[in-house]
Amino acid sequence: MINYEIVIIGGGPAGLAAALSARKAGVENILILERDAELGGILNQCIHNGFGLHTFKEELTGPEYAWRFIERVQKENIAYRLNTMVLNISKDRIVTAMNRDEGIIQIQAGAVILAMGCRERPRGALNIPGFRPAGIFSAGTAQRLVNIEGYMPGKEVVILGSGDIGLIMARRMTLEGADVKVVAELMPYSGGLKRNIVQCLDDFNIPLKLSHTVVDIEGKDRVTAVTIAEVDENRKPVPGTEERYTCDTLLLSCGLIPENELSVNAGIELSRITNGPVVTDRLETNIPGIFACGNVLHVHDLVDFVSEEAAKAGRSAAEFVQNSTAEKQSSEPVVLKAESGVRYTVPFTVDPGTMEDLLKVCFRVGAVFRDAYVSVYFNDERVMHMKKRILSPGEMEQVILQKKKLLEYDDLKTVTIRIEAE
User: Fold this and answer.
1) What is the CA radius of gyration of the chain?
2) Fewest beta carbons within 10 Å, which of 284, 306, 336, 361?
């Protein structure tokens, strides 16, 4: 059996940033396991710009952003294995993996960092009536076909779902000569960033129809037409609102799900809201020594925030293998609660005794709020009250908690984040 201090599962932006952070914290023996033929993850097919504004203070494409990290990983001589699929993680951190050259390999890790990313929500979960012809793609698959494989999925396109990948592909397909007829969104708000709505739809006069969904797909060998309809408050189609669009392609951009099969098999507790692991402020799961970061933890809107979170996971894993926090652990962690319009928080608990001086708590809201307040309560006392012009489910929000403030508060049991009207 091979031994490594830290094993990182996933060589995308989260895995790369976690590896570099752990190395900076003094850990030498690090291994990245990546199932693809190259490092970089999903960024390799994201050839549009807009990456790196927070991390590098300049605008980069996805491959350029990934290469900044890959180059540093190689310069630091951090070990990685490509074309290697992880099959299992045990509670005592034995990682079982497989590749063509070595067959089945087992690795004993001092700490494990989960950085597997996310996948697109499958079409089978959408219950769209009609046939199942060719010409139906997830938006991410279409992105890979166009940007990496050099194939055009079709020429007349309808997109269901307004997630960021769908919005970006509306622009990409238009630039490649396709006619993108409409983007239909089931919810009364977009699931993507405002800037992507403006740059990818408004700038190309592509209509976005909120509270609409696909109610029929025509065509047996290939999609020939799609019918969309307005939905009511219960998300049921409203009779008489149908609109038919002839097309040869339907792209589905209906959300992302953290890639957590390995986590489930390892016995890691998952959140029913995020579908990612329940973690402490150190990004540690319920299994000691197993940490999670990036889109496998919760779906991010900006890769810069993935890198920032992953760097913290790398530091925490380094502390774990160096045993530097073992004696400082408090007996009772403080629970972070999401209420009144807040869907979830990450992390889920915080230990004031061992936390860093500043803790960024990420959260998403469950609806669109205008001129509302983000309020933070210590137990039942309101300690923060910040006005926001607009809050949207497509945009990640955050509050900063200070260690000294938490330690000053006697008998702190809960920190609650709420949306309030005044």
Assistant:
1) 22
2) 361
Q: In angstroms, rounded to a whole number, what is the distance separating the alpha carbons of residues 296 and 405? A: 30
Contact 252, 138 (CB under 8 A): yes
Q: In CATH terms, are 1-120+255-328 and 122-254 the same topology?
A: yes
- Of 197, 133, 151, the C-alpha closest to 170 is 197
For residue 126, the model assigns a pLDDT of: 59
Give pLDDT, residue 193.
86
Give dist(CA 20, CA 39) in Å, integer.
14
Place 223 in a pLDDT band, splitting at 50, 70 and 90.
very high
Look up residue 379 and give its two tokens. Answer: 């137990």
Q: Given this structure, which CATH class describes domain 1-120+255-328? A: alpha beta
Contact 59, 9 (CB under 8 A): no
pTM, two decimals, is: 0.92
- Taking only the tens place, the pLDDT of each residue in 166-216 is 999 999 999 999 999 999 999 998 888 888 999 999 999 999 999 999 999
Q: Where are the domains of the chain?
A: 1-120+255-328, 122-254, 330-422
CATH placement of domain 122-254: 3.50.50.60
Burial class of residue 253 (count of CB atoms within 10 Å of its CB; 0-12, 13-18, 19+): buried
| 329 pLDDT higher than 90 | no
Residues 6+ apart with CB under 8 A from 92: none
Q: Which residues contact 274 (CB under 8 A, 6 or more apart)?
A: 258, 297, 298, 299, 344, 346
Contact call for residues 89 and 76 (beta carbons, < 8 A): no
